[in-house]
Amino acid sequence: MIDCQYKQLTSNIQARYILSIDLNNKSNKVATFIMMNPSKADYNTSDLTVNKVIKFAFIKGKGSIGLINIVNLFPFYETQSSSLQAVINHVRNTPNINFKDIISLNNKIIKHSLQSSNYIVLAWGNPSDNINKKLHFDQCNYIKSYIRALKNNKTYVIKTHYKKILTNERYPRHPSRPSLQGFKKCWINEAGEIII
Hints:
The protein is of the alpha/beta class. The protein is built from 4 helices and 8 strands. Helix 3 runs parallel beside helix 4 (133-150). It starts with a strand and ends with a strand.
């Protein structure tokens, strides 16, 4: 691990903006994975999803990826996605913390990572049932619109053991649960849809 930008927001809530991992090979190419929100991984500790992404990028990337950046739609640490909205609500209701500023900084860091990436991997999965749908929709669309503006022809989703590449709701699959089989090239159309 070579970088982990995070901030303690309250006594029990942290935001992690980016996690960078060197795969220790000869490649200087960068892959940015965009997921939903961080679970546990930081400078000192990894977690199951990060370990899975590292192994996947190392093996399926076949030596073409030298550095992984992991960013998230929402930077707040929460292992259970069903509890993410509660964390967001807590941050929004905490005096002296500006939720919009946190999301703005998160988006700035995502954009910077994407600008320097050779590969962009969409991997945020379905939103949890209780998350604010407008907030989630707006954040997804903001990121997809930026990716589209980059005109990067190396945008991917993760191919898994499921027959459908995307979820039934047309979101890119999150790497935590399924068997990861490879990268599948995609693009984003004018309507913001992920096209395989």
